[in-house]
Every structure is written in structure tokens, then in C-alpha cells.
């Protein structure tokens, strides 16, 4: 089991949360807390960087969907940097690659 790490980088109006390790039910609370802290500052965009993940289960998918819904409601851009194939497959199976915004690199997201 790989411990989940969350690194937050704020660059002007864009906040990037880079996750590494395993995103499962045991780490959801921590990521949600970090997301809410970032969202309180009302950035124009939030990027969730999943490149460092080795695993993500359905609870991670739920977290992403809820963050996307909050962003839409608050007129904030929300983008995801895809993780490795094993992680990104979860989005493909659920057909969320059509609904969510994916970018190759966090630097592609501007306010």
C-alpha cells in the first residue's frame, strides 16, 4: 500500500493539487479537505494532477465528480491531468473522458 500524498501549488488564479500514491477510501478525506481549502480562496481554475497516482478506486472517482460539479456551479474551470493507464482507465470505463476536461500538463490551464 502506497501512502497518499497531496501537494498544493497556487500560481495566481490557478491552483494545482498533485496527488501521488493510492487514492482510495482511506485518503479521500484528506484530498477533500485540501480541495475545500483551495476552493475557499475562489481560484479561477483548479487542476487535479493524477500523474503520481498508482491506484484509484470508485471513491476517488466520486471525489473528482463532486469537485467538477462544485466548479461548474461556481463558474470555475476544473481540469485533470490524467494518471497512468491503470488510473485513467477508471474514467474511460465510466465514459467520463467525454464529460470532464483533461489536459496534458497543469501549465496548460490558465485563468
Could you describe the 3D structure shown?
This protein is of the alpha/beta class and 111 residues long. The protein has one domain (5-83): Transcription Regulator spoIIAA (2-Layer Sandwich), CATH 3.30.750. Helices cover 34% and strands 32% of the residues. It has helices spanning 28-40, 58-73, 85-93, and strands at residues 5-11, 14-23, 45-56, 77-81, 101-102. It has a 5-stranded mixed beta sheet. Helix 1 runs parallel beside helix 2 (58-73). The radius of gyration is 13 Å and the shape is globular.
Return the CATH class.
Answer: Alpha Beta
Rg for CA atoms = 13 Å
Which sheet architecture does the biggest sheet show? Answer: 5 strands, mixed
For the record, what is the CATH homologous superfamily label?
STAS domain
Question: Beta-sheet strand percentage?
Answer: 25-35%
Distance between the termini: 36 Å
Number of domains: 1
Amino acid at each position: 500500500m502506497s501512502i497518499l500524498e497531496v501537494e498544493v501549488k497556487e500560481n495566481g488564479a490557478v491552483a494545482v493539487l498533485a496527488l501521488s500514491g493510492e487514492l482510495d477510501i482511506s485518503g479521500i478525506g484528506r484530498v477533500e479537505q485540501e480541495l475545500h481549502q483551495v476552493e475557499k480562496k475562489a481560484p479561477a481554475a483548479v487542476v487535479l494532477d493524477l500523474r503520481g497516482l498508482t491506484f484509484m478506486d470508485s471513491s476517488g472517482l466520486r471525489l473528482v465528480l463532486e469537485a467538477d460539479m462544485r466548479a461548474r456551479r461556481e463558474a470555475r474551470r476544473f481540469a485533470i491531468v490524467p494518471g497512468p493507464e491503470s488510473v485513467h482507465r477508471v474514467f474511460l470505463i465510466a465514459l467520463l473522458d467525454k464529460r470532464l476536461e483533461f489536459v496534458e500538463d497543469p501549465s496548460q490551464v490558465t485563468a
